[in-house]
Amino acid sequence: xxxxxxxxxxxxxxxxxxxxxxxxxxxxxxxxxxxxxxxxxxxxxxxxxxxxxxxxxxxxxxxxxxxxxxxxxxxx
Length: 76
Hints:
It is a single chain. This protein is mostly helical. The protein is built from 4 helices and no strands. It starts with a helix and ends with a helix.
């Protein structure tokens, strides 16, 4: 969660941002579709994973994002 928070703070230029598992785009100023794709790209680079379109569509909250990152990084 700390690493995700840092990525979001950097991409959204919002250093005071604190994410929770239930946080969604509706809760964060500046988290629009363009920022979302930038965030996804940064996460892919950081964790050396790749999201498929169907993965991205299913992301509704930070908790969903954490779950998919954990799933994709298991066994690495």
